[in-house]
Amino acid sequence: MLGISNTATKAAVVVYFFACLLHFVVYSAGLPAVRTLTFTAGWLAQMAIILSILRWI
Q: Are 45 and 13 in contact (CB under 8 A)?
């Protein structure tokens, strides 16, 4: 729409969405090790989005 996204931001948004979705499912199932992995994936996706906003990637 505004033309400010690139491939990295699009991929980060998809990864963030599914990481949050999986985090909810895994949290509800009570699997702490997998929950940490999904949280980390979401956090890394957020960092990619922030770095893209700051024009570092």
A: yes
